[in-house]
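check this:
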Amino acid sequence: MLGAIRAFWNDQRGVAMIFVAIMFPVLIGFSVLAIDMARLNGLHNDLQKGIDALALAAAAELDGRADSIDRANRAVTTLLNNTTKFSTADDHTLALSDVTITYLTGIPASDDTTLSSDGIDGNGVNWASTDPKAVSFAEVTVNASGVADGAGAFATIFPASMIGSANTMDIQPQAVAGFVQSICETVPIFMCNPFETTDPLTSKTIQQAFASGDTYSREFRILKVDSNPGPGNFGLIDNNLSSLRDAIAMGTSGTCYNRDALTTKTGVTLGQVNTGLNTRFDLYSGSLNKNNKDWAYRPASNVRKGQKTGCSKYDPVTDGTALPLPPGGNYVDSKGMSDQIATQGFWSSYWSINHGTTYPNVPAATNPTGTTTVPASRYDVYKYEIAHGLVGDKSLAPTKETGTPSCYKGDNPTPDPDRRLLNMAIVDCIANQAKINGHVQIKPDGYASVFVNTPVQKQDNTKDPEDPSAGEKPISLEIVDVDGGFADNTLVDKAFRNEAQLYR
């Protein structure tokens, strides 16, 4: 009997079955966990791609206009109207109630800094805002209660409840996308905001001034100064072209500027501004004579400027037998602008001398307020001359000037795009005086499309236009459009590039 017991004790046959019986649940458990983790990873990736798309769709609408958040919410809702399933129970689709959308004015500089779904980062800074003109980032977070079964959790196959845990796992991917706006077709010049004052109660943005009609038909004059710039001045911006003159002549800086960041430029001879700008009026100074066949340096289709002859510099006649677009009345140097055109009689001399007829009361076609009964602006008259075939009219003898280019030897210029229109940054120079003259980054108040009234003339017009010893006269212009929600959108549609990109 004892021997039989001893033999049974030492018998190892079938022992593997015992280990298999013990390990089988463990192996099954690990297999189920592996399957759960694969499912979890796949679902997380799908959700991450989904909210990446939602964040990009929302961010693409954050252009600073008054309805930007409304449009962003509508974009998200539209994108969610699909049949993609994110659960096996109840055929649950990702819905608006499953995500939290928060709009931010900025994000932490470091990706290591956490950002909660309500826009508060790990340092306690609250980036969230409901101001549609201030936000530029969209944060989308999947709610802990909105993924599967409508209860917010990923249902596992592994029976975790047997060990005192829940049979669900939370998945909360997050995405942050931002709106980036850049402008590519612009000259490397900024103009000081003529409506900025030291009093916040009276100061206006260029967009506010445009929307109220304050910019319409005023003559603005801007001159470069070396220190303390303000209304009536302009400055230069870094560009990727070696020649500032060529950048102004062609109308491009050779680079795209971020809508919110410009770097000022110093140390440039202003004769380059003069020479580059005047090519648009069929004037080719110095070394630019070789470019009078190049399409990139073509003039406008209407270059009437009150000058009899000459292809190298602006030298207007003084006998009244030809007139440029007339200057504004009551010009205020400290503001850099004139009064608005008050009466139709403002145009009588210009029209009778250049066209030989009575002024036909040109409509105010570009007035941002929509009023057409006020006197036309210079840009309105200029466009009217082109549209009605009046560019070739001769002014009084002996000058007999027309608006048809004669110095340019290339193909005939076309009226669109208009070569007397420039896109230009507008900067609050009073608020940014400390940054204007250094190689420093500044944020512009906005961008404007400006119409150049006349060529730029030297103070001493007997010297060569590129001679730096003769001071410049101001650039005379009108503002015909601006960026932002108050604009006519001619500038935004043609010059701005809007992009949304993921940051987190």
Remarks:
- The chain has two domains: 14-181, 184-498.
